[in-house]
Design a protein that fits this description.
This protein has about 300 residues and is mainly α. The protein has helices at about 1-15, 20-40, 50-65, 70-85, 115-120, 130-145, 150, 180-200, 220-230, 240-255, 260-265, 270-275, 275-290; strands at about 160, 165-170, 175-180. α1 runs antiparallel to α2, α2 crosses α4 (about 70-85) and α10 (about 240-255) packs across α13 (about 275-290). It is globular and about 65 Å long.
Length: about 300
């Protein structure tokens, strides 16, 4: 199975052009399944896998506390792998042919209110070089809704300073243009002019945001910064870098932005992915109505 998985990953990467993050997620899912069948079923190849084995595996990962979304991704990874094996005539029957994707009850992403967002954005301040940099990063996350991976991979050429637009490289190496608001623009300009040259430490790099060693941030490094400021700000919610993206989208829709425009700015290929934020807006409207309407 290990050899077949390697071939499948190469197929996804080279022929399908799957994004690296998606490839890594599928890799984790398929290796987890491979470990399950090896340890629990004493199987080392793909030929002994039956629909019953698949279902037993899904029950186990559900019992381990995996979310419905994660279970569906695991099943999608398995479905793609076995479809590939069937097409390559490695197997004669696909054990997943009759297994439907588990129904996912849409889980609304966590967002911050506009008041909570202001509190966390004000937290770093501008007293130190690190604070100026962190303010620029947080403001840019909220102003553009870009993903964590997109932020840490920004270069100096990603920003069009003349017109105030950012070029983000999204999933599947798809570029999109996102406008940057004045506050984020000014914060970013100050970081680039005053702080970034010091962080470079005589290194030659075009990476926009640098850590204290003059290198590109890791996802974990950015997560620590965001969660640290959320804690300092006294927010009770768990706040992740992706929370800024969710808040960006929901605040735009609350303000009257149309769904298609938000879809373009988020870089969603399918508008159904963006539609989850309309649920947040409806919930917010209901909350306001119940709070202020005299007959609610």
């Amino acid at each position: 199975m290990r050899e077949l998985l390697t071939k499948y990953f190469n197929y996804l990467l080279i022929e399908r052009g799957i994004a690296q993050n998606t490839l890594e997620a599928y890799g984790r899912d398929l290796r987890r399944f491979s470990l399950f069948v090896h340890e629990n079923k004493k199987l080392s190849d793909v030929h002994g896998i039956t629909p019953e084995v698949i279902i037993e595996y899904l029950v186990q990962i559900r019992d381990e506390g995996l979310s419905a979304n994660s279970m569906n991704r695991s099943l999608a990874a398995l479905r793609g792998f076995y479809k590939y094996l069937h097409r390559e005539e490695v197997i004669t029957e696909n054990p997943l042919a009759r297994i439907e994707l588990a129904k996912v009850w849409m889980k609304l992403p966590d967002t911050l209110s506009k008041e909570e967002m202001k509190v966390i954005l004000d937290e770093p301040g501008t007293q130190t070089a690190a604070a100026i940099r962190d303010t620029a990063m947080l403001e840019l996350l909220y102003a553009t809704g870009i993903r964590v991976s997109e932020l840490i991979n920004l270069t100096m050429n990603s920003m069009n300073w003349q017109v105030g637009f950012l070029m983000a490289m999204g999933k599947g190496s798809k570029e999109r243009v996102v406008p940057v608001g004045k506050i984020a623009y000014d914060s970013l300009r100050r970081y680039v002019d005053e702080v970034r040259p010091k962080l470079m430490q005589k290194k030659i790099t075009d990476v926009l945001f640098l850590n204290r060693f003059g290198r590109k941030f890791t996802r974990q490094g950015l997560w620590k910064i965001v969660s640290g400021y959320a804690k300092k700000a006294g927010l009770k919610k768990k706040v992740y870098p992706h929370t800024f993206r969710h808040s960006f989208a929901s605040h735009l829709l609350e303000g009257g932005a149309d769904l298609r425009t938000v879809q373009v700015m988020l870089g969603h290929s399918d508008i159904s992915t963006t539609q989850i934020y309309t649920h947040i807006t409806r919930d917010r409207l209901k909350e306001v109505h119940q709070k202020y309407h005299p007959r609610s």
